Amino acid sequence: QKNGCAGPVHVIEKGDTLWTIAQTYCTREEDSIYDYMNELAQINGIDSASMDYLREGDYLTIVYYEANPL
Question: Cα angle at 19 between 67 and 41, to 5 degrees?
Fold first, then answer.
């Protein structure tokens, strides 16, 4: 079970895309880049039509996962 949480913010730089940001922050092997991109979009209120239109200087909340208790 994944427990995605809102985490730190990423300041959008020129050339950033959800794909490149997901590649940077998706650290768990079992997560696909596509799933992580969708989580980034959802937590930041980005619809599918706007995924390729990030504006330089905007902030993007990063998704992170809490460890599952044993």
Answer: 65
Element (H, E) at 6: strand 4-11
Residue of 60, 67, 64, 66 lying closest to 19 (CA atoms): 60
Digitized pLDDT (tens) for each residue of the chain, 70 residues in all: 344 555 688 999 999 998 899 888 887 765 788 888 888 899 899 987 777 788 999 999 998 766 554 5
Q: What are the CB-based long-range contacts (under 8 Å, 24+) for 14-17?
A: 14/56, 16/54, 16/56, 17/51, 17/52, 17/54
pTM for the model: 0.74
CA distance 37 to 17: 10
Phi (first) and psi of residue 14, to 5 degrees: -55, 130
Q: How far apart are CA 61 and CA 70, in angstroms?
A: 28
